[in-house]
Amino acid sequence: MVKQSDIKFDVAIIGSGPAGLSAAGRAAELGMSHVLLEKTDHLSDTIFCYQKGKHIMATPDALVLRSEFEFEAGSREDILDRWNSKAESINVSLNAEVIEIKGKKENFIIKTKAGDTIEARHVILGIGTQGNPNTMRCPGGDKAHIQYSLDDPDAYFDEDIIVIGAGDAGIENALGLIRRPELENRVIIMNRRAEFSRAKDANVKALMSAAADGRMTIMTESETQEVYDKQADVSTKDGIRTVAADRIIARLGSAPPRKFIESCGVEFASTDRLAYPTLSPKFETSVPGLYVIGALAGYPLIKHCMNQGYDVIENINGNTDLKPADEPLLIHLFRALPNPEAVSEWLEFLRTKIKIFNGLTPLQMREFMLDSKVHVFDPKKMVFRRNDVGDSLFCIAEGAVAVRIDPNDLSKTITIPEGEIFGEAGLISGRRRNASIFAETRSILVEVPRNAARKLLATVPAVQASVDRTATERLLLAILGQGLQKEDLSEIMETATLETIQANEYLIEEDAEDADVFIIRVGSMVVEKEVAGNNVFLAYVPAGAYVGEMAMLEDGRRTASVKAAVKSEVIRLKGEAFKTLLAAKPKLRASVIEKFADRRALNSYIEANKDSFGGVADMFTARANFLMKQGLGEATDALLIDEKLCIGCDNCEVACAESHDGISRLNREAGTTFDHLHVPTSCRHCEHPHCMSDCPPNAIRRAPDGEVFIDDSCIGCGNCERYCPYGVIQMARPAPSKPSLFSWIAMGAGPGPGQPPKAWIKKKAKGKAPSGPKQAVKCDMCKGITGGAACVRACPTGAAIRVSPEEFLDASRSKVR
């Protein structure tokens, strides 16, 4: 490596990660005087700190690499060896931690911790964010057995280890810890979301395979609540769970070292802690001559970072016409637009016009748009129809679209203007489109596929906040109704906050003095009232309803408690703001009072009869609590069997198999029973299905009537089976064809009605391995079959019923009164 000279360098590069090394390599090739300053005693601390033996991917595949440093997929050690060898041609100064940068273009003064001073005409910051990790903020988050990186996974033996974080780093750490079975580590990986939207597909598939083999446990929709010396309390959708933890590896991402960067005079895109510096398309900051590249610019992929290092040196050297390596890909993306070659102009147009993109940097826009599509719609052209299958998000860059809210009256439409989004309901729930939408004027729309949208929401907080606000506003309009417009909600929206409530956690406590109103966005709630020292079940409240209006209307204490049946999301609205809205909208107030009157009547009845309320009410409460534990709190349709009426004929299973190509989706005997009420193993058709959370081909859909079903595009990966908490999905091959029913009756040919026994299938196959790939199968409520659910139709005694939980619980509650 070349020694540093006492000269003013053309360029000083700070940080020897992939971006910095690539910049230094290009500067050396062009003969520019340069110095690469690295604070550690080794090059590329980014790669150096990866776990030993880590396989590094060279994605995206379609992107051309520009760099004097070679890079292709391989092990951490191989890549470092090649880069260290190539670094002999560049001027590197190790153990040179920069503590201050002053000046501007042509006259920068850089000071190091060791006391050295370097002068440079240009400065490139490639320091990344790795040295500023996000830390755990729960009680016990400072325990000694918590670490934020993993060097050598083989150094740990016979430990209970929790890996927190579902990005590539967390997944690779978890997989590394189980790579050698003889080490006998027991690993849990936790993800606070249902899907792994921030990780590469190959990593997610490897993770799912490990879980399927029983080598690792995956906990989704989970967060650490408190850490102790040998265990941790974890909140899950079913409540708090205590997990053994000899070690916790928290891969929670990182944030830009903002204090240091701002001390250099650099401005940021926003005040958000995770915001990135404001950069020009040439990577220049608000300080002339000071550039930012790599992860600090918002580009975490190695190939992107290396291209940036190359491009910024070319720009400094005078090649200002050089286009980014992804330019041809974006030109192809914009081919439907006028002058598609004007990539930078179109990117800025989309970024500024579409509200949810406002917080993205131009460089983030380039990466994000490669996963999206751009459409131009003429007036009156349909974007999508009601009941279409689709879960992508649409953004309006120019023009406006009309939402046809009444399929029977084409004149009833609502306009969504320029800058807004639509399709978020399908994105969040996976349901089919709930309305037809067409272009009102000539419109430019950006379509963001589900996976890309979820990645965007997970990595850019400003986008998540914007989508949440839009979804909240539209949910309020839908729930409250009464002709309310967006403008009517402006005041109440300023008070709206989104909160997560864990299973069995109380949202409202009886006799409390607060008066806020809550909209249930995800999950469900149960209402209870204390009578004679016992909590009596009053009502089940599903997503799409509101609670808390009684205390708000009467300015009194809470008359009942409300707790989450499953992990839920609620929108909190301040009581005073809600009251102001009711005062301005008499029709809305009347509808709320009507609902309030029914609840008040129930409370009055209970108070008047509390002395004789015991037996029946206690039994109903116990029954309701039992059903909540069986998952009916998040169900939209469930199969229940009355054991008093059931005669065990199994007609329900036989009918199910006959309706579904010989494979029954129902196990009558399995499941649990309370009193005479049996919940068999059959799909609940959850409001927010767990099985949908990570289906690679998006084969799991929801039909217009609410049925959750699996279509023929299933690839048999088994993700849905692993995600379902109720064990109602099975992986099965198509059953062999059976002789006709007449042949069975007349000649005894074949196994008869129902699912064929394994012995018959084996005999039919004549010793050969079963043919055809396995696919996921589950109850689809006999979608498309005349007459409805076969299991219910085939029950001779009426023991089997399919109901929504609110229908069943309300009917049962009426017997109490």
UniProtKB/TrEMBL annotation:
PROSITE patterns in the record: 4FE4S_FER_1, 4FE4S_FER_2, CNMP_BINDING_2, CNMP_BINDING_3
Domain Cyclic nucleotide-binding: 356-457, 480-599
Keyword Metal-binding part of the UniProt annotation: yes
One GO MF term attached to the UniProt entry: metal ion binding
Transcription found in the keyword field: no
InterPro entries, per database record: 4Fe4S_Fe-S-bd, 4Fe4S_Fe_S_CS, cNMP-bd_CS, cNMP-bd_dom, cNMP-bd_dom_sf, FAD/NAD-bd_sf, RmlC-like_jellyroll, RnfB_subfamily
UniProt name for this protein: Oxidoreductase
Lineage: Bacteria, Pseudomonadati, Pseudomonadota, Alphaproteobacteria, Maricaulales
